[in-house]
Amino acid sequence: MKTRIITAVIAVLGIFPFFWFSAPVEPTNILNYAFPLLISLISLFSVWELLHGLSLDKNYFVSVPFYLASFCFPMLARVMRQDLHAYRQIAIFSVLAIAIYLFAVMVFQFGKLDTGKIGLAFMTSAYIVGANAGVIVLRDVPQFGRYLFLIPFVFAWVTDSCAYFAGRLFGKHKLIPRVSPKKTVEGAVGGFVCCALTTLLYGFVVARCFHVTPNYLVLGISGLVIGVVSQIGDLMMSAIKRQQGIKDFGWMLPGHGGMLDRFDSSMAVTVLVLIVSTYFPFFY
Fold this sequence. Notes:
This protein is mostly helical. It contains ten helices and two strands. It has a two-stranded antiparallel ribbon with strand order 1-2. Helix 2 (34-53) packs antiparallel against helix 3 (60-79) and helix 4 (84-108) packs antiparallel against helix 5 (115-139). It starts with a helix and ends in a 5-residue tail after the last helix. 39% of the residues are buried.
C-alpha cells in the first residue's frame, strides 16, 4: 500500500504540468503538443503492454501498425481539432485498413499465429487508441473542455478508491472471483454510490469556481453509469490478464503495474463521456 501511494503521488506531480498546460494554443507553440504527447505515450505504452501480454510484441508484422496508430492518433486529434469530421474519417479508414492488413498477415503466417489473439489485440488496441485520442478531443471542446477531460480521470479513480475501501470495510461476497478474486459486491456498490454522488459535487465545485452552469441531470445520470462502466473497464482488463496467466500488464508504476493497469478504468469512462457529451451538454 505504501509503494502504491508513493507511486501515485510521484505520478500526479509528474503529469500535473502537462494537465496544467493542456489547453490548445497556436500551432507554432510547442506547448500545443505537450499534453497530446503525454497521452500518446500513455497510449503507446498501453498497447505495448497489451501486445506483450499476448506474446505478440515481438511479431513486428503485427505490432508495428498498432504502435504507429497508438502514438499518432492522440497527437493527430490535436492537430486536426478544427476538423473532427475529417479526423473521424481517417480513423475509420485506418481501422479498416489495419483489419485488411492483419487478415493478410494471418494468411501469410498461417499456422504460426493464434487468430484469437490477433482478434483480441485488434479489438482491444482500437479501444485503447480511441479512448486516449478521446481525451484530447474532450480537452479541445470549446469553453468546457477543461472540465470535461478531467471527468474520466477523477471519477474512474474515485470509483476505484471507494470500491477498494468499501470492499476492505464491508466486503463479504465475491463479485467475479474467476476474474478478480479480491473484488466484492459490497466494494462495487460502494464505488458506484460514491461515483454517483461525487459527480454532482464536481458540478457544484466547477460552478462555484469557474462560473459555468452544470447540467446536473446529465451529470447525475452519467455518474450512475460511470460508476458501472469504470468497474467494467477494470474487470475487462483483469479478464484478459487471467486468460493470459499474468498478474499485471507492466511494471512502470510500482504498486499499480503498468499504464494499462492504471488507466484501464479511465479509458472506459472516456469512451462513455465522449459519447454522452456528443449529444448532451455536461455544462452550459
